[in-house]
User: Which sequence fits this backbone?
């Protein structure tokens, strides 16, 4: 149950046993959990690192379990801080990569620096097929915004299946909004059944496909993907794109996992991200584009947040959210 917080199964078993049996030593914990004494000591070290056990004042050299109400809440809060820091890194990396790609695209003779402009959907699709057929080890994809069309997903399956049969691994990152689209979810499960990995996040980087960490396809203009794409082979740019993906991937949630609500705020990750976006000055329309959901969904989410805060206006909601440490 606590693995989502980074706790191993052994550490969780020891923690639960210490809560139920205060004063247990290593031998008693080992007998109760059916773990070896060395495994119990390793679990205690893990719990101490996470500040879920502390020195006992009653038993010299003994340890006591910190109550879940305090210890787990503190652990969630620390993870939220770390998540916010990682998301800030993702945003900074995204801006840097976008600028880098744009600068390269503006250079005269883009071919000479390791890339090629592709204009038109047919040219882009042809290059994607070429990249897929040449894939050797890994295919990375980021798909922000609205769900992909069913016919596009079906058209890509034969090529993906061929690559998977050759041992190519697939990692795909979607926005959380696709969880509400049956077609996208069905395609994601199709990938999962074949050994792929699929994760989602409230906000993801720009659309990209990276093959074997050697070549990438990115939109010329992330705000309008119909303008065309850049096929990039310049090692520095490809590495920057891979690093951006890895940052976003680390903060994303596997598709099969449930987005749990924060026990203190009652907010899920999408609602937290919406609060951050609106607090930074974005309009509802801009926030809906960043989250990949409809304007109606953004307003429904905000109405729910205001109700939870017992706020009668957006301004009051912002004040109360800040006062409670939600921002």
Assistant:
């Amino acid at each position: 149950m606590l693995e989502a917080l980074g706790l191993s199964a052994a550490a969780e078993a020891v923690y639960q046993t210490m809560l139920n049996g205060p004063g247990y030593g290593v031998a008693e914990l080992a007998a109760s959990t059916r773990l070896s004494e060395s495994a119990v000591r390793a679990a205690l070290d893990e719990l101490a690192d996470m500040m879920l056990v502390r020195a006992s004042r009653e038993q010299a050299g003994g340890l006591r379990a910190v109550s879940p109400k305090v210890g787990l809440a503190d652990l969630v809060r620390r993870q939220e801080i770390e998540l916010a820091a990682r998301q800030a890194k993702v945003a900074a990396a995204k801006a840097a990569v976008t600028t880098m790609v744009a600068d390269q695209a503006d250079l005269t003779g883009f071919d000479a620096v390791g890339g090629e402009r592709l204009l038109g959907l047919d040219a882009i699709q042809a290059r994607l097929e070429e990249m897929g057929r040449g894939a050797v080890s890994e295919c990375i994809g980021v798909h922000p915004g609205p769900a992909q069309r069913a016919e596009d997903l079906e058209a890509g399956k034969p090529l993906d299946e061929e690559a998977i049969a050759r041992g190519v691994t697939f990692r795909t990152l979607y926005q959380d909004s696709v969880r509400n689209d049956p077609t996208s979810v069905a395609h994601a499960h199709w990938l999962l059944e074949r050994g792929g990995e699929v994760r989602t996040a409230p906000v993801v980087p720009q659309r990209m496909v990276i093959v074997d960490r050697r070549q990438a396809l990115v939109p010329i203009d992330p705000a309008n993907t119909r303008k065309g794409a850049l096929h990039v082979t310049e090692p520095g740019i490809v590495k920057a794109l891979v690093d951006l993906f890895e940052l976003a991937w680390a903060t994303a949630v596997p598709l099969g996992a449930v987005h749990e609500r924060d026990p203190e705020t009652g907010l899920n990750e999408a609602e937290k991200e919406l609060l951050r976006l609106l607090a930074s000055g974005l309009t509802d329309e801009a926030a809906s584009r960043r989250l990949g959901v409809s304007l109606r969904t953004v307003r429904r989410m905000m109405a729910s947040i205001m109700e939870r805060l017992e706020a009668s206006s957006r301004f009051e909601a912002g004040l109360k959210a800040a006062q409670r440490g939600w921002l």
